[in-house]
Amino acid sequence: MTIDSYLGELDRRLSGCAKHKADLLAEARDGLHDAADAYRAGGWSDEDAEHRAVTEFGPVGLLARDYQAELGMFSGVRTLWKLVIGVPLMQASWDYARILTFGAWTQLPTSTPGWYRVLMHVSHGAVFVVPVIGLIALLCTRWLSRRLDGVRIARICGLLIAGAVGMNVATVGTLIGATGVVDVSRLFLSVPCALLMVAWVALSVRLVVLARRSWGGYATIVT
Amino acid sequence: MKADSLRGHLDALLLAVLDGRKLHGYAIIEALQLRTDGALDLPTGTVYPALRRLERAGYLASEWDVVGGRKRRTYRLTRSGLQSLAAERAEWREFTMVIGGVLGA
Known about the structure:
The structure holds two protein chains of two kinds. Chain A has seven helices and no strands. The longest helix of chain A is centred in the middle third of the chain and has 42 residues, at about 60-100. Chain A is an all-alpha fold. Chain B has a three-stranded antiparallel sheet. The interface between A and B is medium-sized, with 29 and 25 residues.
C-alpha cells in the first residue's frame, strides 16, 4: 500500500470538521513521508520504503478509531463553547430587547396563570444551568485528557454535550410552548423580541445538529 | 521488556522526550525508539492523536513550522507539562525504589 492510498482510506473512514481533518491528515502525511525517507536513506526502494512506513504506522481501522475520537473531541469542544456563550447571550439579549421595546411585564393585557409563573421560573433557571453544564463539560474534557485515552474521553464528552443540548431544547420548547398556550401575542412583544426568538430557536437547532454530528463521529469509532 | 508495560507510560514518555526541546511528530517517534532501544513497538500512527490529546490537556503546545525545508507540526512542553513530567518522574522514582526494595537489585 502506498502512502497516498493509505491516507485516502483513512480519510474515507473519518467524519468531522473538514479543516481539522485536513490538519490531522497533513501531519500523518508528514510523518509517513519522514519514515519513508529514512528507509530510502537506508537503501530501500521507493515502493518498499513506503510500504514499510505504512505498515509501521498501523492498521487503518485502529488508527481511524483514534483519529475519529480526536475529530469528535474537536467538534465537541466547539459545540460546548457555542452553548456556553450563545445560550445566556440569547436569553440576556431577549430580556434587554423586551425592556427597551416593550417595557415591564405588568403592561401585559392578559392575566398570567400561576402554573405559567412556576414554569417560567424553572425554564429561566434552566437557561443558566445549561451553560454551567457546558462549562463543566469543557473542564472535564481538559481534566480527562490527562487521565483517559481519546476514545473514552470522546464518549464521555458526547454524553455531556447531549445532556446540555437536550436541556436547552427542552427549555426553549417549554418557554415557547407554554407562552403560546397562555397568550400567543406574548411571543411577538416587539419586532426585535420576535427576531431574537427566531435566532434563539435557530441556535438551538444548530446546537442539536452539531451535537448529533459529534455523536455520529463517536458512533463511528470502531472498537 | 514487554511493550505493553511501556505503552501504559506513553504519556510520560512523550513528555520526557520533549523535555527542553521542540520536536515534530516523526522526530518524537525516533527519539522514543532510540531511548527505549526499539522496545516500544507500537503503531507509530497512534503517537499523533496522543500528542493532540496531551495538547488539549494543556501539557503541550504546538505550531506549524518549517523544519528541514518541510512544513511540520512541532510540539513543546508547557508549564503544566513540565510540572506533570516532574510529578511523573518523582512517582516513578518512588515506585522503582519500593518495588526494587522487595524484588532486589
